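Recall that a protein's primary structure is simply its ordered list of amino acids. Everything else, from secondary elements to tertiary packing, is in principle encoded there. The following example makes that idea concrete.
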Amino acid sequence: MVCKKCNREIPDDAALCCYCGKVYQRKQRRARLRPRGTGSIRKLNDVRRTKPYRVEKGGKRLGDFPTMEEAQKFLDKINGKQYRPETVNMTLDDFHALWLQRDYPDLSEKGKESYDTIWPKFESVKGMKMREVNTETIQPLVDLEIEKGRSRSQQEKIRSMYSLLCQLAMEKNVIDRNYANFLKLSKQKKVKRDVFTKAEIEAIIKDAATCETSKIIAIFLYTGFRIQELMGMPLSGVDIEKWTFQGGEKTEAGKGRIVPIVPKIRPFVRYFYERASGELFLSGYEGNQAAGNFRRRDYYPTLERLGIRTAERPMKPHSCRYTLATRGHSLGIDNDTLTKILGHADFDVTSDIYIQTDLEKLHAEMSKLEEERPESDQTKKTGKRKKP
Protein backbone atom coordinates (compact mmCIF):
# COMPACT_ATOMS: atom_id res chain seq x y z
CA MET A 1 0.00 0.00 0.00
CA VAL A 2 1.30 3.51 -0.89
CA CYS A 3 0.87 6.31 1.63
CA LYS A 4 -1.41 8.97 0.24
CA LYS A 5 0.57 11.70 1.92
CA CYS A 6 4.28 10.83 1.40
CA ASN A 7 3.93 8.28 -1.43
CA ARG A 8 6.08 5.68 0.36
CA GLU A 9 5.40 1.96 0.61
CA ILE A 10 3.84 0.84 3.88
CA PRO A 11 2.26 -2.49 5.00
CA ASP A 12 -1.33 -3.07 3.81
CA ASP A 13 -2.63 -3.56 7.36
CA ALA A 14 -0.81 -0.52 8.79
CA ALA A 15 -2.84 1.60 11.15
CA LEU A 16 -0.72 4.63 10.26
CA CYS A 17 2.24 5.62 8.02
CA CYS A 18 5.54 4.89 9.76
CA TYR A 19 7.19 7.76 7.86
CA CYS A 20 4.77 10.72 8.01
CA GLY A 21 2.27 9.55 10.60
CA LYS A 22 -0.83 9.56 8.33
CA VAL A 23 -3.61 7.67 10.19
CA TYR A 24 -5.48 4.94 8.30
CA GLN A 25 -7.23 3.00 11.05
CA ARG A 26 -8.57 4.73 14.14
CA LYS A 27 -8.92 2.85 17.38
CA GLN A 28 -12.55 2.21 18.34
CA ARG A 29 -13.52 4.46 21.19
CA ARG A 30 -14.57 2.84 24.39
CA ALA A 31 -18.08 3.53 25.55
CA ARG A 32 -18.38 6.53 27.77
CA LEU A 33 -18.42 5.52 31.40
CA ARG A 34 -21.67 6.36 33.16
CA PRO A 35 -21.66 8.08 36.55
CA ARG A 36 -21.68 5.72 39.50
CA GLY A 37 -25.16 4.60 40.52
CA THR A 38 -26.86 5.43 37.21
CA GLY A 39 -26.94 1.88 35.86
CA SER A 40 -25.17 0.09 33.04
CA ILE A 41 -25.71 -1.49 29.62
CA ARG A 42 -24.07 -4.72 28.56
CA LYS A 43 -24.31 -6.77 25.40
CA LEU A 44 -25.17 -10.42 25.84
CA ASN A 45 -23.14 -12.96 23.80
CA ASP A 46 -26.06 -15.16 22.73
CA VAL A 47 -26.43 -14.46 18.97
CA ARG A 48 -29.96 -15.85 18.97
CA ARG A 49 -31.25 -13.01 21.12
CA THR A 50 -33.40 -10.38 19.42
CA LYS A 51 -32.78 -8.05 22.36
CA PRO A 52 -29.12 -8.47 23.26
CA TYR A 53 -28.61 -5.18 25.13
CA ARG A 54 -29.43 -5.52 28.81
CA VAL A 55 -30.00 -2.59 31.17
CA GLU A 56 -29.12 -3.13 34.81
CA LYS A 57 -29.20 -0.92 37.83
CA GLY A 58 -28.59 -1.60 41.47
CA GLY A 59 -27.76 -5.21 40.64
CA LYS A 60 -31.20 -5.78 39.10
CA ARG A 61 -32.20 -6.36 35.50
CA LEU A 62 -34.45 -3.58 34.22
CA GLY A 63 -35.00 -4.72 30.64
CA ASP A 64 -33.56 -5.99 27.33
CA PHE A 65 -33.49 -3.96 24.10
CA PRO A 66 -32.71 -4.67 20.42
CA THR A 67 -30.24 -1.77 20.02
CA MET A 68 -27.76 0.13 22.13
CA GLU A 69 -29.57 3.40 21.32
CA GLU A 70 -32.89 2.14 22.73
CA ALA A 71 -31.20 0.81 25.83
CA GLN A 72 -29.41 4.14 26.28
CA LYS A 73 -32.66 6.12 25.94
CA PHE A 74 -34.41 3.90 28.47
CA LEU A 75 -31.59 4.22 30.99
CA ASP A 76 -31.52 8.00 30.57
CA LYS A 77 -35.28 8.07 31.03
CA ILE A 78 -35.36 6.10 34.25
CA ASN A 79 -32.50 8.13 35.71
CA GLY A 80 -34.33 11.34 34.87
CA LYS A 81 -37.44 10.05 36.65
CA GLN A 82 -35.59 8.45 39.53
CA TYR A 83 -37.07 5.00 38.94
CA ARG A 84 -36.63 2.49 41.68
CA PRO A 85 -35.40 -0.94 40.54
CA GLU A 86 -38.04 -2.68 42.65
CA THR A 87 -40.96 -0.96 40.83
CA VAL A 88 -39.75 -0.41 37.26
CA ASN A 89 -40.53 -3.99 36.21
CA MET A 90 -43.84 -4.29 38.06
CA THR A 91 -46.62 -5.68 35.90
CA LEU A 92 -50.22 -4.52 35.59
CA ASP A 93 -51.13 -7.45 37.81
CA ASP A 94 -48.57 -6.34 40.40
CA PHE A 95 -50.11 -2.89 40.58
CA HIS A 96 -53.58 -4.44 40.84
CA ALA A 97 -52.36 -6.49 43.82
CA LEU A 98 -50.94 -3.33 45.38
CA TRP A 99 -54.24 -1.52 44.79
CA LEU A 100 -56.16 -4.40 46.38
CA GLN A 101 -54.00 -4.08 49.47
CA ARG A 102 -54.06 -0.29 49.73
CA ASP A 103 -57.33 1.14 48.34
CA TYR A 104 -59.74 -1.77 47.84
CA PRO A 105 -60.68 -2.15 51.55
CA ASP A 106 -62.09 1.42 51.60
CA LEU A 107 -64.65 0.70 48.87
CA SER A 108 -68.31 -0.06 49.52
CA GLU A 109 -69.50 -3.63 49.01
CA LYS A 110 -71.16 -2.61 45.74
CA GLY A 111 -67.96 -0.94 44.56
CA LYS A 112 -65.90 -4.03 45.40
CA GLU A 113 -68.34 -6.22 43.49
CA SER A 114 -68.12 -3.95 40.45
CA TYR A 115 -64.30 -3.99 40.28
CA ASP A 116 -64.18 -7.74 40.99
CA THR A 117 -66.39 -8.29 37.97
CA ILE A 118 -64.39 -6.07 35.62
CA TRP A 119 -60.82 -7.21 36.46
CA PRO A 120 -61.03 -10.57 34.57
CA LYS A 121 -61.38 -8.56 31.35
CA PHE A 122 -57.71 -7.55 31.77
CA GLU A 123 -56.58 -11.19 31.63
CA SER A 124 -54.78 -10.83 28.28
CA VAL A 125 -52.65 -7.85 29.39
CA LYS A 126 -52.22 -8.19 33.15
CA GLY A 127 -48.83 -9.89 32.77
CA MET A 128 -47.35 -6.94 30.84
CA LYS A 129 -44.97 -4.50 32.51
CA MET A 130 -46.87 -1.42 33.58
CA ARG A 131 -44.37 0.89 31.86
CA GLU A 132 -45.16 -0.85 28.55
CA VAL A 133 -48.96 -0.64 28.91
CA ASN A 134 -50.62 2.40 27.34
CA THR A 135 -53.81 3.53 25.63
CA GLU A 136 -53.16 1.37 22.56
CA THR A 137 -52.86 -1.67 24.84
CA ILE A 138 -56.17 -1.16 26.66
CA GLN A 139 -58.26 0.27 23.80
CA PRO A 140 -58.86 -3.22 22.27
CA LEU A 141 -60.46 -4.30 25.57
CA VAL A 142 -62.92 -1.41 25.28
CA ASP A 143 -63.49 -2.07 21.56
CA LEU A 144 -64.34 -5.69 22.35
CA GLU A 145 -67.07 -4.54 24.74
CA ILE A 146 -68.44 -2.24 22.02
CA GLU A 147 -68.48 -5.11 19.50
CA LYS A 148 -70.42 -7.25 21.97
CA GLY A 149 -72.99 -4.46 22.29
CA ARG A 150 -72.19 -3.79 25.93
CA SER A 151 -73.32 -0.53 27.48
CA ARG A 152 -71.18 2.55 27.87
CA SER A 153 -71.35 1.95 31.61
CA GLN A 154 -69.46 -1.32 31.13
CA GLN A 155 -66.82 0.47 29.07
CA GLU A 156 -66.48 3.15 31.75
CA LYS A 157 -65.76 0.46 34.34
CA ILE A 158 -62.77 -0.72 32.30
CA ARG A 159 -61.52 2.85 32.02
CA SER A 160 -62.04 3.43 35.73
CA MET A 161 -60.11 0.26 36.70
CA TYR A 162 -57.20 1.15 34.41
CA SER A 163 -57.22 4.76 35.61
CA LEU A 164 -56.83 3.69 39.24
CA LEU A 165 -53.81 1.54 38.34
CA CYS A 166 -52.30 4.36 36.27
CA GLN A 167 -52.59 6.74 39.22
CA LEU A 168 -50.82 4.24 41.42
CA ALA A 169 -48.06 3.76 38.81
CA MET A 170 -47.64 7.54 38.54
CA GLU A 171 -47.10 7.71 42.28
CA LYS A 172 -44.31 5.15 41.87
CA ASN A 173 -42.78 7.11 38.95
CA VAL A 174 -43.26 4.18 36.58
CA ILE A 175 -45.35 6.16 34.07
CA ASP A 176 -45.72 9.89 33.60
CA ARG A 177 -49.38 10.20 32.59
CA ASN A 178 -52.79 8.62 33.06
CA TYR A 179 -53.31 6.81 29.76
CA ALA A 180 -56.89 5.94 30.71
CA ASN A 181 -57.87 9.52 29.89
CA PHE A 182 -57.22 8.88 26.20
CA LEU A 183 -59.46 5.80 25.82
CA LYS A 184 -62.32 6.23 23.35
CA LEU A 185 -65.71 4.96 24.48
CA SER A 186 -68.93 4.66 22.50
CA LYS A 187 -71.38 7.53 22.68
CA GLN A 188 -73.98 7.46 25.43
CA LYS A 189 -77.29 6.49 23.86
CA LYS A 190 -80.45 8.17 25.07
CA VAL A 191 -82.57 5.28 26.32
CA LYS A 192 -86.28 5.69 26.86
CA ARG A 193 -87.08 4.82 30.46
CA ASP A 194 -90.54 4.37 31.92
CA VAL A 195 -91.91 7.05 34.23
CA PHE A 196 -95.11 7.12 36.25
CA THR A 197 -97.95 9.30 34.97
CA LYS A 198 -99.76 11.79 37.16
CA ALA A 199 -102.81 9.51 37.30
CA GLU A 200 -100.66 6.53 38.33
CA ILE A 201 -99.01 8.52 41.12
CA GLU A 202 -102.45 9.56 42.40
CA ALA A 203 -103.57 5.90 42.32
CA ILE A 204 -100.54 4.90 44.40
CA ILE A 205 -101.14 7.69 46.93
CA LYS A 206 -104.78 6.63 47.25
CA ASP A 207 -103.82 2.96 47.71
CA ALA A 208 -101.24 3.94 50.33
CA ALA A 209 -104.09 4.64 52.78
CA THR A 210 -104.41 0.88 53.30
CA CYS A 211 -101.25 -0.65 51.75
CA GLU A 212 -97.80 -0.43 53.36
CA THR A 213 -96.03 -1.25 50.08
CA SER A 214 -97.76 1.67 48.31
CA LYS A 215 -96.61 3.93 51.15
CA ILE A 216 -93.01 2.93 50.39
CA ILE A 217 -93.49 3.38 46.63
CA ALA A 218 -94.87 6.87 47.29
CA ILE A 219 -91.76 7.68 49.33
CA PHE A 220 -89.62 6.49 46.41
CA LEU A 221 -91.53 8.74 44.01
CA TYR A 222 -91.08 11.87 46.14
CA THR A 223 -87.48 11.36 47.32
CA GLY A 224 -85.72 9.66 44.38
CA PHE A 225 -83.94 7.22 46.67
CA ARG A 226 -82.53 4.03 45.16
CA ILE A 227 -84.12 0.88 46.50
CA GLN A 228 -81.01 -0.08 48.54
CA GLU A 229 -80.78 3.46 49.95
CA LEU A 230 -84.31 3.51 51.36
CA MET A 231 -84.34 -0.12 52.51
CA GLY A 232 -81.05 0.50 54.32
CA MET A 233 -81.94 3.97 55.67
CA PRO A 234 -81.08 4.18 59.40
CA LEU A 235 -83.77 5.48 61.70
CA SER A 236 -81.28 8.13 62.84
CA GLY A 237 -81.24 9.47 59.28
CA VAL A 238 -84.90 10.53 59.53
CA ASP A 239 -85.75 13.85 61.19
CA ILE A 240 -89.52 14.28 61.54
CA GLU A 241 -89.11 17.69 63.17
CA LYS A 242 -87.17 19.21 60.28
CA TRP A 243 -88.79 16.73 57.87
CA THR A 244 -85.62 15.53 56.16
CA PHE A 245 -83.91 12.29 55.21
CA GLN A 246 -80.15 12.05 55.41
CA GLY A 247 -78.52 9.07 53.73
CA GLY A 248 -77.55 7.55 50.41
CA GLU A 249 -74.75 5.53 48.84
CA LYS A 250 -72.94 4.59 45.57
CA THR A 251 -71.10 7.89 44.87
CA GLU A 252 -69.42 10.58 46.96
CA ALA A 253 -72.12 13.03 45.85
CA GLY A 254 -74.82 10.55 46.86
CA LYS A 255 -73.54 9.58 50.30
CA GLY A 256 -75.13 11.37 53.24
CA ARG A 257 -77.21 13.69 51.04
CA ILE A 258 -80.13 15.57 52.59
CA VAL A 259 -83.54 15.05 50.97
CA PRO A 260 -86.57 17.09 52.11
CA ILE A 261 -89.77 15.22 53.00
CA VAL A 262 -92.64 16.94 51.18
CA PRO A 263 -96.07 17.17 52.88
CA LYS A 264 -97.58 14.62 50.48
CA ILE A 265 -95.60 11.73 52.01
CA ARG A 266 -95.14 12.96 55.58
CA PRO A 267 -97.99 10.75 56.94
CA PHE A 268 -96.29 7.70 55.39
CA VAL A 269 -92.89 8.65 56.80
CA ARG A 270 -94.37 9.16 60.28
CA TYR A 271 -96.17 5.81 59.97
CA PHE A 272 -92.92 3.84 59.51
CA TYR A 273 -90.95 6.07 61.89
CA GLU A 274 -93.33 5.32 64.78
CA ARG A 275 -93.46 1.58 64.00
CA ALA A 276 -89.70 1.09 63.66
CA SER A 277 -88.61 -1.90 65.73
CA GLY A 278 -84.88 -1.72 65.07
CA GLU A 279 -82.13 0.54 63.81
CA LEU A 280 -83.56 0.85 60.29
CA PHE A 281 -86.31 3.26 59.26
CA LEU A 282 -88.34 0.44 57.65
CA SER A 283 -87.64 -2.13 60.36
CA GLY A 284 -91.34 -2.12 61.29
CA TYR A 285 -92.47 -2.90 57.73
CA GLU A 286 -94.45 -6.17 57.68
CA GLY A 287 -93.35 -7.13 54.17
CA ASN A 288 -89.94 -8.12 52.77
CA GLN A 289 -87.18 -5.84 54.04
CA ALA A 290 -84.37 -7.16 51.81
CA ALA A 291 -84.15 -5.06 48.62
CA GLY A 292 -84.27 -8.02 46.21
CA ASN A 293 -87.19 -9.71 47.92
CA PHE A 294 -89.08 -6.44 48.27
CA ARG A 295 -88.73 -5.80 44.54
CA ARG A 296 -89.98 -9.24 43.48
CA ARG A 297 -92.56 -10.04 46.15
CA ASP A 298 -94.00 -6.66 47.17
CA TYR A 299 -93.18 -3.86 44.69
CA TYR A 300 -94.02 -5.60 41.38
CA PRO A 301 -97.19 -7.38 42.63
CA THR A 302 -98.55 -4.09 44.01
CA LEU A 303 -98.05 -2.26 40.71
CA GLU A 304 -99.62 -5.17 38.83
CA ARG A 305 -102.62 -5.07 41.16
CA LEU A 306 -103.04 -1.37 40.42
CA GLY A 307 -102.78 -2.02 36.66
CA ILE A 308 -99.59 0.08 36.35
CA ARG A 309 -97.00 -2.58 35.56
CA THR A 310 -97.32 -4.42 32.24
CA ALA A 311 -95.04 -6.38 29.91
CA GLU A 312 -94.51 -3.21 27.85
CA ARG A 313 -93.89 -1.07 30.95
CA PRO A 314 -91.89 -3.09 33.53
CA MET A 315 -91.69 -0.04 35.86
CA LYS A 316 -88.59 -1.03 37.81
CA PRO A 317 -87.89 0.67 41.17
CA HIS A 318 -85.44 3.00 39.37
CA SER A 319 -88.46 4.34 37.43
CA CYS A 320 -89.32 6.26 40.60
CA ARG A 321 -86.01 8.15 40.28
CA TYR A 322 -86.64 8.86 36.60
CA THR A 323 -90.12 10.08 37.49
CA LEU A 324 -88.84 12.48 40.15
CA ALA A 325 -86.20 13.89 37.78
CA THR A 326 -88.65 14.28 34.89
CA ARG A 327 -91.48 15.79 36.97
CA GLY A 328 -89.13 18.06 38.87
CA HIS A 329 -87.57 19.40 35.69
CA SER A 330 -90.99 19.89 34.09
CA LEU A 331 -92.31 21.74 37.16
CA GLY A 332 -89.32 24.11 37.23
CA ILE A 333 -87.21 22.75 40.08
CA ASP A 334 -83.74 24.21 39.50
CA ASN A 335 -81.01 21.97 38.12
CA ASP A 336 -78.74 22.26 41.16
CA THR A 337 -81.48 21.08 43.52
CA LEU A 338 -82.41 18.11 41.32
CA THR A 339 -78.75 17.09 41.06
CA LYS A 340 -78.28 17.19 44.84
CA ILE A 341 -81.54 15.36 45.59
CA LEU A 342 -80.64 12.51 43.21
CA GLY A 343 -77.04 12.38 44.46
CA HIS A 344 -75.35 13.08 41.12
CA ALA A 345 -71.97 14.73 40.69
CA ASP A 346 -73.24 17.10 37.99
CA PHE A 347 -76.43 17.93 36.09
CA ASP A 348 -75.23 16.23 32.89
CA VAL A 349 -75.99 12.80 34.38
CA THR A 350 -79.42 13.98 35.54
CA SER A 351 -80.20 15.49 32.14
CA ASP A 352 -78.77 12.82 29.83
CA ILE A 353 -80.03 9.73 31.62
CA TYR A 354 -82.78 10.54 34.13
CA ILE A 355 -84.93 13.30 32.61
CA GLN A 356 -87.32 11.71 30.10
CA THR A 357 -89.31 13.37 27.34
CA ASP A 358 -92.72 14.54 28.60
CA LEU A 359 -95.03 13.60 25.71
CA GLU A 360 -98.08 15.22 27.32
CA LYS A 361 -96.26 18.52 27.54
CA LEU A 362 -95.04 18.23 23.96
CA HIS A 363 -98.58 17.58 22.69
CA ALA A 364 -99.94 20.47 24.74
CA GLU A 365 -97.34 22.86 23.38
CA MET A 366 -97.76 21.75 19.74
CA SER A 367 -101.55 21.97 20.01
CA LYS A 368 -101.12 25.73 20.25
CA LEU A 369 -100.59 25.67 16.49
CA GLU A 370 -104.23 24.69 16.03
CA GLU A 371 -105.40 27.54 18.26
CA GLU A 372 -104.20 30.18 15.78
CA ARG A 373 -107.19 32.11 14.43
CA PRO A 374 -107.72 32.69 10.70
CA GLU A 375 -106.71 36.12 9.44
CA SER A 376 -110.35 37.09 8.67
CA ASP A 377 -111.32 36.41 12.32
CA GLN A 378 -108.46 38.56 13.58
CA THR A 379 -109.52 41.40 11.23
CA LYS A 380 -113.11 41.33 12.51
CA LYS A 381 -111.92 41.35 16.11
CA THR A 382 -109.51 44.24 15.76
CA GLY A 383 -111.29 46.13 13.00
CA LYS A 384 -107.97 46.66 11.23
CA ARG A 385 -106.59 45.18 8.08
CA LYS A 386 -103.15 43.75 8.04
CA LYS A 387 -100.79 45.88 5.95
CA PRO A 388 -99.56 44.18 2.78
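Residues 92-182 form a domain with the DNA polymerase; domain 1 fold (CATH 1.10.150.130). Confidence is low (pLDDT under 50) at residues 344-359.
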